[in-house]
Design brief:
By secondary structure, this protein is α+β, with helices and mostly antiparallel strands. The chain has 5 domains: 138 residues, Orthogonal Prism (Agglutinin, subunit A), CATH 2.90.10.10; 121 residues, Agglutinin, subunit A; 142 residues, 3-Layer(bba) Sandwich (Hepatocyte Growth Factor); 101 residues, Phosphorylase Kinase, domain 1 (2-Layer Sandwich); 223 residues, Transferase(Phosphotransferase), domain 1. The chain is built from 15 helices and 45 strands. The chain has an 8-stranded mixed beta sheet with strand order 26-25-33-29-34-31-32-30. A 5-stranded antiparallel beta sheet has the order 35-36-37-39-38, with helices on both faces. Strands 4-5-1-6 form a 4-stranded antiparallel beta sheet, with no helix packed on it. The protein starts with 6 loop residues before the first strand and ends with a helix. The protein binds 2-acetamido-2-deoxy-beta-D-glucopyranose (NAG) (12 copies). It is a single-pass type I membrane protein. Its main location: membrane.
């Protein structure tokens, strides 16, 4: 039998579970605390007490005082020594742990604050910030908001996180998360090979970095008071950011680090460079070749790269500038903070074993950092403002150009940004990166505004989705299955998961992420966050209770649930949504896949446009774009798009018209058949309208119809599906036409895609086009949408 070991520790209290506690929050001189006693902070958030690791499964201990000196029985107690030190003594009155004050405190009072900080003060300076000692200066494995991780440079005092040894053993384990200020300040998570990225800002947390003469540290704040967070170095060597809502108290992992393949230390071996957005992610630095090419081809990067042409200290050598990188590990380096970049270059050239140099600037003083030997753990950032420039020594013959950027005066702030931010890049930022990449590549003039897309941890999503079980599957979106689940906050969400091995899907995923993150409108389905862990690409949406429009209008029973008034509201809603996309949003966006199944309905049956996987952003001056891959849904595609891949806002108008006719008729355009002719729904509507019998198109389900309004809708629908894009009205006119019953409507011309095979009315469509249109439709059917 093991004797229970006791530790003194701090842990969070779940108020909803434990109820109100009457324990005091202070311990004064003369008092003591034994096993079973506790201190509870006034706001009832934190509790200080004794615990035995084996018996406390569901608690999260934020701080443990006597980590490596457990009490061996329950007779120890916490009290004050005559010097005013807070001490933990065992049965035989030996001090097991002490606050180890440097000065005597006459009248000490220990108080557990609502931040989780245990502080020691003079009774006379109670309620002041004049702490003689504080638990926050001695973190265990957890960083709470307000705690500093880093250094008091002057006195050489460090605060770092050290993991527990194992689940039941709080003694210091193998993994330490710390700020290394030797050379350049950088964060280190020892044990597993990781240096570099850490947390970035997101809607829940806000990290603050302070790099001063006397102090250098990381501290973070919670931006939303309804959340509690903690950063944990777990005993298997990961950093985990936990979030709990104050209501539910269940902890969820928001993300863990390392979180991408490039985070792994030296992922690409010596002299390799890791680029997370490339496939494969590893490459040799310029001028280098794989050491073992066969292994390299098998995606085994461990061997790294070696110089194609060795450097031999001749004058024929120069430097290649590599921008936006995380600089190599400082295995063998030399630092001088008093040098300019030019001097730095000269210094590197002078020494035959110098392989690269960089500006060491972190605090705005120019400086020089030289590397000798291999360059390990270089990683490229996609975003311009991250990372640093690295200058790699190469023979002239290898150089495309030699940079001479030393004369460029760099802004102190940019340098600060790059050095610090490079360390703190996370997948949240990765979302931004894709965004930037694509938007920039379009060359549009869109101003990048920070869109904070919360990043969800894969474990959280898997948990919320019940392990992506069949039961939680609710449908299929453009690029993969859609699941329903509940987040820890209790919120219902729909989660869209990119099917594996779908490259096309990846592009759609990126497009959708970028677009939805940018677009905020109550008509568009809301994106709550994303997850890009390992190979997973997941989008998290608000859940829409009432499925999608097609679920109702095409069903002979459910159609009764959507009366005309509702359908008309939905139509106007969609029209306004499209107006926003086409004209009102900061970007001009073409949806390209508008159809009944992409119109979701919320709890009050209001429409929400979804599935932006195919959407395109248009730069201001672009009118029409041609695409090689014709994708979309047959039956909703405009002829011009289906025939030759040209699309513009008018392609969406065509789809809208189609949708409008479907809403009115309750029939699908695709697969429509009529006993007496072979026209599509479009052709059918057109024929009836031409014969002044438009009302015959109307859905039999619509018992409450307002005939003139329905007729107007058919008319507007036909205007939208006219064959020539120029004839189709713009979204703004459509909204006006729908909203104003006295607005006059032009007479529609022949629609595109009548698809008749009878001789009737065929004069307007040439044989050639007819053939084309059939081809186009069957071709896109192959797309399987
Ligand atoms: C502080 O000292 C005063 C006077 O000695 C005493 O009454 C009071 O209880 C002390 N406060 C605490 C929190 O110990
Ligand atoms: C108390 O601690 C001292 C020193 O660590 C040790 O020698 C002694 O055996 C302990 N007493 C008990 C009862 O654990
Ligand atoms: C207590 O602090 C002093 C300096 O203030 C230090 O030298 C000593 O090692 C500390 N003792 C313990 C047990 O931490
Ligand atoms: C990077 O991590 C490795 C392995 O943990 C460690 O040896 C090295 O010192 C770290 N380097 C930097 C620059 O943090
Ligand atoms: C440590 O964190 C990682 C990443 O979140 C997780 O996979 C692992 O299971 C954790 N280890 C333990 C013992 O909880
Ligand atoms: C990877 O390549 C290295 C040499 O570059 C070799 O020693 C190692 O065995 C390879 N690993 C695997 C799994 O093939
Ligand atoms: C850096 O330069 C300043 C002014 O030129 C000088 O006072 C200082 O001693 C130098 N520091 C080092 C470490 O060389
Ligand atoms: C080059 O730099 C290394 C490391 O600082 C040093 O040991 C060596 O003496 C230098 N060689 C020359 C020729 O300056
Ligand atoms: C040094 O390398 C250059 C090519 O980079 C070559 O032309 C030259 O001959 C070499 N010199 C010596 C002394 O090896
Ligand atoms: C994604 O967006 C880009 C740029 O807007 C576009 O070129 C590309 O065709 C889109 N991809 C898909 C699958 O829609
Ligand atoms: C409705 O349309 C008529 C005719 O075009 C126009 O005179 C009137 O101002 C419009 N009403 C509104 C509210 O836009
Ligand atoms: C017609 C229909 O199914 N309406 C439902 C929409 O969603 C709300 C909220 O879940 C339900 O109460 C309605 O019955």
């Amino acid at each position: 039998m093991e004797t229970p070991t006791l530790f003194i520790c701090l842990y969070i209290i779940c108020l909803s579970v434990f109820g109100l506690s009457t324990a005091a929050d202070t311990l004064s001189s003369g008092q003591s605390m034994k096993d079973g006693d506790k201190l509870v902070s006034t706001g009832q958030s934190f509790e200080l007490g004794f615990f035995s690791p084996g018996n406390s499964k569901n608690r999260n201990f934020f701080w443990v005082a006597n980590r490596d000196k457990p009490l061996t029985d329950s007779h120890g107690f916490l009290t004050f020594s005559h010097d005013g030190d807070l001490v933990l003594v065992n049965q035989s009155k030996s001090v097991v742990w002490s606050s180890n004050l440097s000065r005597v405190v006459k009248n000490p009072v220990a108080q557990l604050l609502d931040t989780g900080n245990l502080v020691l003060r003079e009774n006379s300076s109670l309620n002041s910030d004049d702490y003689r000692w504080q638990g926050f200066d001695h973190p265990s494995d957890t960083l709470l908001p307000g705690m500093k991780l880093g250094w008091d440079v002057k006195i050489g005092f460090e605060r770092c996180l050290t993991s527990w040894k194992s689940k039941d053993d709080p003694s210091p384990g193998d993994y330490t998360f710390r700020l290394n200020i030797n050379g350049l300040p950088r964060f280190e998570l020892f044990g597993i090979q990781y240096n570099g990225s850490s947390m970035a800002s997101n809607p829940v947390i806000k990290p603050l970095f302070f790099y001063g003469e006397n102090q250098m540290y990381l501290l973070y704040e919670v931006s939303k008071s309804e959340f509690i967070i903690r950063l944990l170095t777990n005993h298997t060597g990961w950093l985990q950011l936990y979030v709990a809502s104050t209501r539910s108290n269940a902890w969820n992992i928001m993300y863990s680090i390392p979180n991408d393949k490039c985070d792994a230390y030296g992922a690409c071996g010596a002299n390799g460079i890791c680029r997370i957005n490339r496939d494969p992610i590893c490459d040799c630095l310029k001028g280098f070749v794989p050491k073992s090419p066969e292994q390299w081809d098998l995606l085994n990067w461990t061997g790294g790269c070696t110089r194609r042409i060795p450097i031999n200290c001749t004058k024929e050598e120069g430097f290649l500038k590599l921008a936006n990188v995380k600089i190599p590990d400082l295995l063998e380096f030399w630092l001088n903070n008093n040098m300019s970049l030019e001097e730095c270059e000269a210094e590197c050239l002078k020494n035959c074993s110098c392989t690269a140099y960089a500006n060491s600037d972190v605090r705005g003083v120019s400086g020089c950092l030289l590397w000798f030997g291999s360059l390990l753990d270089v990683k490229e950032y996609k975003e311009d403002n991250y990372g640093q420039a690295l200058y790699i020594r190469l023979p002239k013959s290898e150089l495309d150009f030699v940079h001479n950027s030393a004369k460029k005066k760099r802004m102190v702030i940019a340098i600060l940004m790059s050095a610090i931010a490079a360390l703190f890049l996370s997948a949240t930022v990765y979302c931004h990166q894709i965004q930037n990449r694509i938007i920039k590549s379009k060359g549009s003039k869109i101003k990048e505004e920070d869109v904070d897309l919360p990043l969800f941890d894969l474990a959280t999503i898997v948990n919320a989705m019940n392990g992506f079980s069949e039961d939680s599957l609710i449908g299929a979106g453009g690029f993969g299955p859609v699941y329903k689940g509940n987040l820890f906050t209790g919120q219902e969400v729909a989660v869209k998961r990119l099917s594996r091995d779908s490259r096309q899907g990846l592009e759609e995923f990126e497009n959708e992420t970028i677009l939805i993150a940018k677009l905020q409108h109550r008509i568009l389905v809301g994106l709550l966050g994303c997850c890009m862990e390992r190979d997973e690409r997941i989008l998290v949406y608000e859940y829409m209770q009432n499925k999608s429009l097609d679920y109702f209008i095409f069903d002979s029973e459910k159609c009764l649930l959507l009366d005309w008034e509702k359908r008309f509201d939905i139509t106007i809603g969609i029209a306004r949504g499209l107006l926003y996309l086409h004209h009102d949003s900061r970007l001009q966006v073409i949806h390209r896949d508008l159809k009944a199944s992409n119109i979701l309905l919320d709890g009050s049956l209001s429409p929400r446009i979804s599935d932006f996987g195919l959407a395109r952003i248009f730069a201001g001056d672009e009118k029409e774009v041609k695409t090689r891959r014709i994708i979309g849904t047959s039956g909703y595609m405009s002829p011009k798009y289906a025939f030759d891949g040209k699309f513009s806002v008018k392609s969406d108008i065509f789809s809208f018209g189609m949708l409008l006719l479907e809403i009115v008729s309750g029939k699908r355009n695709r697969g429509f058949c009529h006993p007496s002719h072979q026209h599509s729904l479009l052709g059918h509507a057109w024929l009836l309208w031409s014969a002044n019998r438009a009302t015959e198109v109307i859905d039999g389900c619509l018992y409450d119809l307002v005939e003139p309004q329905v007729q107007r809708c058919i008319h507007i629908g036909l205007l939208c599906v006219q064959k020539f894009a120029n004839d189709r009205p713009a979204m703004s006119s459509i909204v006006a036409m729908l909203g104003n019953e006295s607005a006059s409507l032009p007479r529609p011309k022949q629609p595109g895609f009548i698809m008749e095979r009878s001789s009737m009315d065929s004069s307007a469509i040439s044989k050639h086009e007819e053939l084309h249109s059939i081809n186009a439709v069957s071709m896109t059917t192959l797309d399987g949408r």
